Amino acid sequence: MKHYNMPHDHGQNIDTVLERMPCMDSFTSVAALFKQMSDSTRLRILWLLCHCEECVSNISAAMQMSDPAVSHHLSVLKKSGLITSRRDGKEVYYKIADNEQTKLLHEVMDRLFEVECPCTES
Length: 122
Prior knowledge:
Order of helices and strands: HHHEHHEEH
Helix content: 40-55%
Largest sheet: 3 strands, antiparallel
Low-confidence stretches: none
Number of strands: 3
Mean pLDDT: 88
Structural class: mainly alpha
Strand order of the largest sheet: 1-3-2
């Protein structure tokens, strides 16, 4: 156990907390994830892809943006591991990645927007 030489003792066990603190690389990764989420267009696209799989043209129409602009955002989201794609003939379809981070993001977004997931049956 590493001992941290704290300048003040406030009666709390900060050493125990610091021992459990994730490494700096983990904080860097999470900060990069939050950076992706701080763009309202990417957030809208990600919300859409949480609820359905879609092609660039349909996403562009839904976002009222050009295909190249949407493609740029999709590329950024894919690079960060938040979405995946699959090709079917000439079309490329995008959807939320299937991992614990994106499941948590989906739940958080639905709660923040106070909407019920349209994929959930009542």
